[in-house]
């Protein structure tokens, strides 16, 4: 377990520090994909219930972020890109982060059960547990497959959104899950290629650290190939259509092409141009997921109209 006591002698925290604990950038992805899952579901919900459901899913995502930062305070203090976070920088104590995470978990799960249904609430509780315990406390520090298996936590929100409306799961919600699940490894491994030293210093067994960059490059390309069929299959279900399929086809061709370019590059070439291709593919991966879910929204709106 992380030694968070080293960060407990802190000045009084400001409101923005507690917001930062919720990982708002990650939460925005949770909110968006959960909303899309709810939006395209075949069972309509009252707009107020939609707002409340997405709000409580967002609070659940924020709770996961706070619990993650509480446990990972020792790692965050070592890595350049995370040492400015509220706990390692001394603005928030570990106890405050833990209390916030547990409190928001209870509020989010209970209120989602009262707002939508208890199946969705249970799903949200499991997702928080999976991210905070299975991924953060176990997988992240134990196996180079941490991102692969742990990526499920970030892939559950559209299924939770779908469950809020329907009370269950379906092929459509599973494929939305698969889209995020298989997108996660190439997305994070592209980042790890030019951030390897951070993970090495922190002792995190990212694939780049345990198996090297050459193996990581091959894995990135392999996952782009695995991802594409699931992305296109989603377009053939009741939530898909020609608009979504056109967007998915273009994005997956570009993503596979980027993975191929990464795989073919030598480390010497990458160092010489400061990992320009890897950075470009990482940026593409951000647009990739957003545009897929945006296309689902547009396809649903056009179909309803």
UniProtKB/TrEMBL annotation:
InterPro entries: Protohaem_IX_farnesylTrfase, UbiA_prenyltransferase, UbiA_prenylTrfase_CS, UbiA_sf. It is an enzyme of class 2 (transferase). The chain crosses the membrane at residues 26-42, 48-71, 92-112, 118-139, 146-168, 174-194, 220-236, 242-260, 281-302. It comes from the Bacteria. Its EC number is 2.5.1.141. Belongs to the UbiA prenyltransferase family. Protoheme IX farnesyltransferase subfamily. Pathway: Porphyrin-containing compound metabolism; heme O biosynthesis; heme O from protoheme: step 1/1. It comes from Paracoccus onubensis. It catalyses: heme b + (2E,6E)-farnesyl diphosphate + H2O = Fe(II)-heme o + diphosphate. It holds the Pfam family UbiA. It is found in: Cell membrane. The keyword Cytoplasm does not apply. This is Protoheme IX farnesyltransferase. Interacts with CtaA. Converts heme B (protoheme IX) to heme O by substitution of the vinyl group on carbon 2 of heme B porphyrin ring with a hydroxyethyl farnesyl side group. Carbon 2 of the heme B porphyrin ring is defined according to the Fischer nomenclature. Coiled coil: none annotated. One of its GO terms (molecular function) is protoheme IX farnesyltransferase activity. It is a multi-pass membrane protein. One of its GO terms (cellular component) is plasma membrane.
